């Protein structure tokens, strides 16, 4: 059975204001102001990426243990960086109320997403197959370098931060490719319903038109025509050959990441990164798939799509060193877009991941307490 964790019931945050709390509460560190801005990457000067950046916390008389760390949020294809706002606010509130340090936080819209410009290297207008995942990874590295150079470590422009990625959907594939391409830079990964990078999103459904198809193998109450319609809708919506408004092509994604359980990743200081793998709630996903635009029968989702996704998530737990992965967890009440359905859940898992990345005793020490 999968471990299950529930999203927090409330994501409404009461940010402290002057004279609104008792004396002990007044001592809380201030809530940070984000920088909401845009920048042109050095290798693509003709377009801008929009981002939101929160500086790392600082302690009196010394730096935060996270002063050299950057936590980066990686979007899926369908939701922009604003989809992380509630999770970020919830996370910051939890750290501030607990008087615990936190790293710098960065969310951004990739080229062709949200408020960012289209990728200037794309030859065709969207929707298109303008660039692939490796191009997005190169852009991500350049963005991190420029953010680091401008905001975090101006005295050491060649230094690279310790990275933690929080990702949804195709963002998880980008995080894997980044960690593979730049070994030793990533200490933590939180995968929220990763894309099945090696899937065409059609093959896990039975094929009623195959020569060896047996209609009696279908669940009771499901007809071959329903399966045929579902396969076709998934083919038209999710197949790697389908272009998107972002211009991020998935045509070669299965070649870039052919297996869920490989290759093994090398993280910060040569060890495997700490990893948390989270999957959607089967019932919630089935309900959303039925009520959404595809109208997929719930029994089909429960019988074929959900088990395939579960097997993929189980494989993902093996891409780091033994003892460094958690999951697959189930985000109860959340569909594919876990940060939208359960921002409190996401912030809880970020806190848990930080506790594994940085020893708890260090955090207690930062607070001036004793273990």
Q: What is the average per-residue confidence, as pLDDT, rounded to a whole number?
A: 88
Tally of discrete structural domains: 1
Give me the number of helical elements.
11
Query: Which CATH C-level class is it?
Result: Alpha Beta
Order of helices and strands: EHEEEEEHEHEHEHHEHHEHHH
Q: Percent range for helical residues?
A: 25-40%
Rough outline: globular
The CATH superfamily name is: Alpha/Beta hydrolase fold, catalytic domain
Tell me how many strands there are. 11
Strand order of the largest sheet: 1-11-10-9-8-6-7-3-2
Structural class: alpha/beta
- Give the biggest beta sheet: 9 strands, mixed
Oligomer: single chain
The CATH topology annotation reads as Rossmann fold
Please report which band the strand proportion falls in: under 5%, 5-15%, 15-25%, 25-35%, 35-45% or over 45%: 15-25%
Poorly predicted regions: 8-23, 360-371
- Rg over C-alpha atoms, rounded to the nearest angstrom: 22 Å
Distance, first to last CA? 34 Å
CATH architectural arrangement: 3-Layer(aba) Sandwich
Give structural notes:
The protein has a single domain, classed as Rossmann fold (3-Layer(aba) Sandwich). It contains 11 helices and 11 strands. It is 33% helix and 18% strand. Strands 1-11-10-9-8-6-7-3-2 form a 9-stranded mixed beta sheet, sandwiched between helices. The two termini are 34 Å apart. It is α/β, with parallel strands linked by helices.
């Amino acid at each position: 059975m999968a471990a299950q964790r529930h999203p927090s019931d409330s994501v409404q945050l009461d940010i402290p204001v002057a004279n609104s709390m008792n004396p002990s509460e007044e001592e809380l560190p201030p809530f940070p102001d984000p920088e909401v801005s845009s920048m042109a990457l050095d290798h693509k000067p003709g377009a801008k990426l929009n981002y939101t950046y929160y500086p790392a916390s600082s302690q009196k008389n010394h730096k935060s243990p996270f002063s050299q760390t950057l936590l980066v949020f990686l979007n899926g294809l369908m939701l922009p960086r604003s989809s992380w706002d509630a999770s970020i606010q919830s996370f910051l509130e939890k750290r501030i109320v607990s008087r615990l340090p936190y790293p710098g936080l960065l969310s951004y819209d990739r080229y062709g997403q949200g408020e960012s410009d289209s990728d200037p290297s794309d030859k065709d207008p969207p929707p298109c197959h303008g660039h692939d995942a490796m191009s997005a990874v190169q852009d991500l590295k350049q963005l991190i370098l420029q953010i680091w150079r401008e905001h975090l470590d101006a005295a050491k422009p060649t230094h690279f931060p310790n990275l933690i990625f929080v990702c949804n959907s195709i963002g998880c594939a980008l995080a894997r490719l980044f960690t593979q391409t730049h070994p030793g830079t990533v200490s933590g990964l939180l995968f929220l319903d990763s894309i099945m990078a090696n899937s065409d999103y059609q093959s896990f459904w039975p094929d009623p038109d195959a020569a060896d198809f047996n209609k009696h193998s279908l669940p009771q109450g499901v007809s071959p025509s329903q399966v045929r319609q579902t396969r076709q809708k998934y083919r038209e919506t999710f197949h790697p050959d389908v272009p998107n408004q972002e211009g991020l092509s998935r045509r070669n994604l299965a070649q870039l990441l052919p297996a869920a359980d490989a290759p093994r990743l090398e993280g910060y200081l040569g060890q495997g990164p700490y990893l948390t793998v989270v999957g959607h709630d089967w019932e919630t996903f089935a309900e959303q798939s039925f009520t959404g635009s595809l109208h997929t029968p719930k029994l089909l989702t429960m019988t074929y799509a959900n088990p395939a996704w579960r097997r993929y998530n189980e494989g993902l737990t093996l891409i780091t060193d033994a003892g460094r992965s958690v999951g697959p967890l189930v985000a109860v009440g959340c569909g594919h877009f876990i940060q939208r359905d359960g921002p409190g859940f996401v912030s809880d898992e970020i806190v848990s991941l930080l506790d594994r990345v940085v020893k708890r005793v260090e955090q207690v020490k930062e607070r001036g307490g004793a273990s």
